[in-house]
Amino acid sequence: MEYLIIPLQPEHWPAVREIYREGIATGNATFETETPDWEKWDSSHRKDCRVVATAPLAPSTSKSSTRQITVLGWSALSQVSIRKVYAGVAEVSVYVAAAARGHGLGKALLQIVVEQSEANGIWTLQAGIFPENIASITLHKSCGFREVGIRRRIGKLGSVWRDVALLERRSSKVGG
Protein backbone atom coordinates (compact mmCIF):
# COMPACT_ATOMS: atom_id res chain seq x y z
CA MET A 1 0.00 0.00 0.00
CA GLU A 2 1.40 3.37 -1.04
CA TYR A 3 1.15 6.16 1.52
CA LEU A 4 2.87 9.27 2.77
CA ILE A 5 2.96 10.37 6.42
CA ILE A 6 2.57 14.12 6.85
CA PRO A 7 1.64 16.53 9.67
CA LEU A 8 -2.06 16.52 10.52
CA GLN A 9 -3.69 19.77 9.41
CA PRO A 10 -7.17 21.17 10.11
CA GLU A 11 -8.27 20.30 6.57
CA HIS A 12 -7.66 16.61 7.36
CA TRP A 13 -10.18 16.73 10.21
CA PRO A 14 -13.25 15.39 8.35
CA ALA A 15 -11.35 12.24 7.35
CA VAL A 16 -9.62 11.94 10.74
CA ARG A 17 -13.00 12.27 12.43
CA GLU A 18 -14.49 9.54 10.23
CA ILE A 19 -11.61 7.16 11.04
CA TYR A 20 -12.10 7.96 14.73
CA ARG A 21 -15.83 7.25 14.33
CA GLU A 22 -14.98 3.85 12.82
CA GLY A 23 -12.84 3.10 15.86
CA ILE A 24 -15.62 4.16 18.23
CA ALA A 25 -18.06 1.89 16.37
CA THR A 26 -15.90 -1.18 17.07
CA GLY A 27 -16.56 -0.83 20.79
CA ASN A 28 -12.92 -1.77 21.47
CA ALA A 29 -10.98 1.40 20.68
CA THR A 30 -12.06 4.04 23.20
CA PHE A 31 -14.50 4.93 25.96
CA GLU A 32 -15.71 7.80 23.78
CA THR A 33 -19.10 7.29 22.18
CA GLU A 34 -19.17 10.34 19.91
CA THR A 35 -16.60 12.18 17.86
CA PRO A 36 -15.81 15.70 19.01
CA ASP A 37 -15.75 18.78 16.82
CA TRP A 38 -12.41 20.04 15.55
CA GLU A 39 -11.98 22.69 18.24
CA LYS A 40 -12.42 20.20 21.08
CA TRP A 41 -10.15 17.59 19.47
CA ASP A 42 -7.50 20.17 18.59
CA SER A 43 -7.42 21.64 22.11
CA SER A 44 -7.06 18.20 23.72
CA HIS A 45 -4.06 17.12 21.62
CA ARG A 46 -0.52 18.42 21.43
CA LYS A 47 0.15 20.69 18.46
CA ASP A 48 3.31 18.75 17.62
CA CYS A 49 3.40 14.96 17.25
CA ARG A 50 0.23 14.61 15.18
CA VAL A 51 0.36 12.96 11.79
CA VAL A 52 -1.80 11.44 9.09
CA ALA A 53 -1.03 8.76 6.55
CA THR A 54 -2.30 9.74 3.15
CA ALA A 55 -2.63 8.03 -0.21
CA PRO A 56 -2.77 10.03 -3.43
CA LEU A 57 -5.95 10.04 -5.46
CA ALA A 58 -6.36 10.80 -9.10
CA PRO A 59 -5.29 14.29 -10.20
CA SER A 60 -7.81 16.96 -9.38
CA THR A 61 -10.30 17.84 -12.09
CA SER A 62 -10.29 21.47 -10.98
CA LYS A 63 -8.22 24.11 -12.73
CA SER A 64 -5.49 23.87 -10.10
CA SER A 65 -2.79 21.29 -10.59
CA THR A 66 -2.89 20.00 -7.01
CA ARG A 67 -3.64 16.37 -6.35
CA GLN A 68 -6.29 15.36 -3.87
CA ILE A 69 -5.40 12.99 -1.03
CA THR A 70 -7.26 10.54 1.11
CA VAL A 71 -6.44 9.98 4.77
CA LEU A 72 -5.80 6.33 5.70
CA GLY A 73 -4.93 6.76 9.38
CA TRP A 74 -3.72 9.13 12.03
CA SER A 75 -1.76 9.32 15.26
CA ALA A 76 -1.53 12.06 17.86
CA LEU A 77 -0.42 12.72 21.43
CA SER A 78 -2.37 14.12 24.36
CA GLN A 79 -0.94 15.73 27.47
CA VAL A 80 -1.55 13.48 30.50
CA SER A 81 -1.29 16.18 33.16
CA ILE A 82 -0.77 19.92 33.49
CA ARG A 83 1.71 19.33 36.34
CA LYS A 84 5.24 20.30 35.34
CA VAL A 85 6.70 16.99 36.55
CA TYR A 86 4.69 15.19 33.82
CA ALA A 87 5.72 17.53 30.99
CA GLY A 88 7.55 14.67 29.29
CA VAL A 89 4.69 12.17 29.49
CA ALA A 90 2.04 11.89 26.79
CA GLU A 91 -0.74 9.52 25.80
CA VAL A 92 -0.69 8.18 22.27
CA SER A 93 -3.64 7.51 19.97
CA VAL A 94 -3.38 5.56 16.71
CA TYR A 95 -6.32 4.92 14.39
CA VAL A 96 -6.33 3.31 10.96
CA ALA A 97 -9.27 3.31 8.54
CA ALA A 98 -10.97 -0.09 8.37
CA ALA A 99 -10.13 -0.42 4.66
CA ALA A 100 -6.42 0.23 5.30
CA ARG A 101 -5.83 -2.13 8.25
CA GLY A 102 -3.36 -4.99 8.00
CA HIS A 103 -0.80 -3.22 5.80
CA GLY A 104 1.64 -1.96 8.45
CA LEU A 105 0.20 1.54 8.46
CA GLY A 106 -0.46 1.62 12.21
CA LYS A 107 3.15 0.68 12.91
CA ALA A 108 4.46 3.34 10.54
CA LEU A 109 2.28 6.00 12.19
CA LEU A 110 3.28 4.93 15.69
CA GLN A 111 6.99 4.84 14.83
CA ILE A 112 6.85 8.37 13.41
CA VAL A 113 5.06 9.70 16.49
CA VAL A 114 7.60 7.98 18.76
CA GLU A 115 10.41 9.72 16.84
CA GLN A 116 8.62 13.06 16.97
CA SER A 117 7.88 12.66 20.67
CA GLU A 118 11.56 12.20 21.46
CA ALA A 119 12.47 15.20 19.29
CA ASN A 120 9.99 17.21 21.39
CA GLY A 121 11.27 16.13 24.81
CA ILE A 122 8.78 13.38 25.61
CA TRP A 123 10.38 10.65 27.73
CA THR A 124 7.35 8.42 28.33
CA LEU A 125 4.49 7.50 26.05
CA GLN A 126 1.52 5.69 27.48
CA ALA A 127 -1.45 3.96 25.93
CA GLY A 128 -4.64 2.68 27.51
CA ILE A 129 -6.00 -0.20 25.43
CA PHE A 130 -8.94 -2.50 25.99
CA PRO A 131 -7.46 -6.00 26.56
CA GLU A 132 -9.77 -7.35 23.83
CA ASN A 133 -7.98 -5.15 21.28
CA ILE A 134 -5.18 -7.66 20.70
CA ALA A 135 -4.10 -6.01 17.42
CA SER A 136 -3.47 -2.66 19.14
CA ILE A 137 -1.60 -4.25 22.05
CA THR A 138 0.55 -6.22 19.60
CA LEU A 139 1.21 -3.06 17.56
CA HIS A 140 2.32 -1.07 20.59
CA LYS A 141 4.57 -3.87 21.85
CA SER A 142 6.20 -4.06 18.40
CA CYS A 143 7.15 -0.39 18.83
CA GLY A 144 8.80 -0.81 22.23
CA PHE A 145 5.85 -0.46 24.58
CA ARG A 146 5.54 -2.80 27.54
CA GLU A 147 2.45 -3.77 29.47
CA VAL A 148 2.52 -2.16 32.90
CA GLY A 149 -0.69 -3.76 34.13
CA ILE A 150 -4.43 -4.01 33.83
CA ARG A 151 -6.66 -1.35 35.31
CA ARG A 152 -9.68 -3.40 36.34
CA ARG A 153 -13.15 -1.98 35.78
CA ILE A 154 -11.66 1.49 35.30
CA GLY A 155 -14.65 2.87 33.42
CA LYS A 156 -17.99 2.09 31.85
CA LEU A 157 -18.69 1.91 28.16
CA GLY A 158 -22.44 2.18 28.07
CA SER A 159 -23.53 0.00 30.96
CA VAL A 160 -20.53 -2.35 30.86
CA TRP A 161 -17.50 -1.95 33.11
CA ARG A 162 -14.31 -2.29 31.06
CA ASP A 163 -10.73 -3.11 31.93
CA VAL A 164 -7.88 -1.20 30.31
CA ALA A 165 -4.36 -2.48 29.71
CA LEU A 166 -1.84 0.24 30.49
CA LEU A 167 1.20 0.18 28.21
CA GLU A 168 4.15 2.53 28.25
CA ARG A 169 7.28 3.22 26.28
CA ARG A 170 10.24 4.84 27.96
CA SER A 171 12.62 6.70 25.68
CA SER A 172 16.26 5.69 25.65
CA LYS A 173 17.12 9.12 24.19
CA VAL A 174 15.16 11.54 26.39
CA GLY A 175 14.91 11.80 30.15
CA GLY A 176 17.90 9.58 30.98
Strands of the widest sheet, in order across it, are 1-2-3-4-5-7-6
Taken together, the total number of domains comes to 1
Estimate the global geometry from the Cα principal axes.
globular
Please state the structural category: alpha+beta
The helicity comes to 25-40%
CATH top level is Alpha Beta
CATH topology title? Aminopeptidase
Overall average pLDDT: 93
Q: Tell me the series of helices and strands, N- to C-terminal.
A: EHHEEEHEHEE
- Extract low-pLDDT stretches: none
Look at the structure and name the CATH superfamily.
Gcn5-related N-acetyltransferase (GNAT)
Give the biggest beta sheet.
7 strands, mixed
- The tally of beta strands, per DSSP, is 7
Radius of gyration over C-alpha positions, nearest whole angstrom: 17 Å
The name of the CATH architecture is 3-Layer(aba) Sandwich
The fraction of residues assigned to DSSP E strands is 35-45%
What is the straight-line distance between the termini? Answer: 37 Å
| Contiguous helical run count | 4
Structure description:
- The chain has helices at 13-26, 38-43, 105-119, 134-142; strands spanning 4-7, 50-59, 67-79, 89-96, 124-129, 146-157, 160-170.
- The termini are far apart.
- Helix 3 links the parallel strand 4 (89-96) and strand 5 (124-129).
- It contains 4 helices and 7 strands, in the order βααβββαβαββ.
- By secondary structure, it is of the alpha+beta class.
- It has a single domain, classed as Gcn5-related N-acetyltransferase (GNAT) (Aminopeptidase), CATH 3.40.630.30.
- It has a 7-stranded mixed β-sheet with strand order 1-2-3-4-5-7-6.
